[in-house]
From TrEMBL:
It catalyses: sn-glycerol 3-phosphate + NADP(+) = dihydroxyacetone phosphate + NADPH + H(+); sn-glycerol 3-phosphate + NAD(+) = dihydroxyacetone phosphate + NADH + H(+). This is Glycerol-3-phosphate dehydrogenase [NAD(P)+]. Belongs to the NAD-dependent glycerol-3-phosphate dehydrogenase family. It comes from Enemella dayhoffiae. Residues 171-311 form the Glycerol-3-phosphate dehydrogenase NAD-dependent C-terminal domain. Pathway: Membrane lipid metabolism; glycerophospholipid metabolism.
Amino acid sequence: MGAGSWGTAFAMIMADAGNEVRLWARRTEVAEGINTEQRNPAYLTSVELPTGIHAVTEADAALADAELVVLAVPSQQLRENLLQWQIPESSRLISLAKGIENASLLTMSQVVADTGISSDRVLVVTGPNLAGEIAERQPAASVVAAWDPTLAREVSERCRTRYFRPYTSIDVVGCEIGGATKNAIALAVGMGHGLGFGANSLASLITRGLAETSRLGEALGADPHTFAGLAGMGDLVATCMSPLSRNRTFGEHLGRGHDVQRATELSRGVAEGVRSAGSIQALAERHGVDMPIVGHVVDVLAGRQSPRDAISTMMARHTRPER
Ligand SMILES: NC(=O)c1ccc[n+]([C@@H]2O[C@H](COP(=O)([O-])OP(=O)(O)OC[C@H]3O[C@@H](n4cnc5c(N)ncnc54)[C@H](O)[C@@H]3O)[C@@H](O)[C@H]2O)c1
Ligand SMILES: O=P(O)(O)OC[C@H](O)CO
């Protein structure tokens, strides 16, 4: 459900893994391009898609009798869409979005459950999975997380291909916090890059970003090991280091001196950290967790601080043991 970059690339994974795939696109021209030319004319436009993907513009046509419903709309739009869709009762749902809902401070699997769908039916797929690389069938690993390890295993087998290697996890909340928070940290790393700083600065931000992500995750009951894995460090490193990342690129525009409006105009696709950073900060405050990098990202996005001042303020913080 959603034919943006990741919805399209994940449809490709599912088709390559031998599933019959229906892909819901909002726009007729997107569906037609996929069905007649095996190309999405709006996202990943140079990629030839497998013939096994059938695109539709009616949500009901995509959802009818679906065994697995893959949710690939941006996180702040998930609830409004779910409330309109007729999700088959026997289906399982896979959440792909990486964000925290603004109004509720819920993770995406929690939003799904909040609309009345049992959390036993909800899975999360997350990891270092930049859609542009996956669509070229470059090898990557990922994590399929569910409360029930048997379900996680079953679904991981359904999306395994020669280029996509899914591990399993029962730490749903940890995987989701890793995925949502890395976007805010990537904004900070992008700012550092845009300011002209090198590998030492960026590695320092990544590592301390992981430390604050782990603190938040643990406060929410996550397994600390998750943050050393694909959904934590793996995704954080891929996002912070790749020019393909929309979040890192958005941060880079800010670091080069553009304001949020101009950075938005220069961006293609959704940079989830821009919308979720404030929610992550609010969630951290609710649980008494210190997240200085996310806090400064929020200040920069709100125009209260420049990227350069944000970095200077972080550097001036009191020193203390690393752990
Ligand atoms: N692109 C990636 O590399 C990647 C990888 C892993 C996870 N994700 C996550 O997947 C989610 C989707 O990202 P994406 O990369 O596909 O974004 P995108 O910007 O490429 O596409 C967004 C899609 O959502 C649709 N959309 C936008 N507003 C909508 C609304 N109100 N209702 C319904 N549909 C709407 C658009 O039409 C489009 O199909 C995000 O949470 C992102 O963090 C992306
Ligand atoms: O392009 P980004 O910044 O949304 O990152 C994409 C994926 O989440 C990387 O795993």
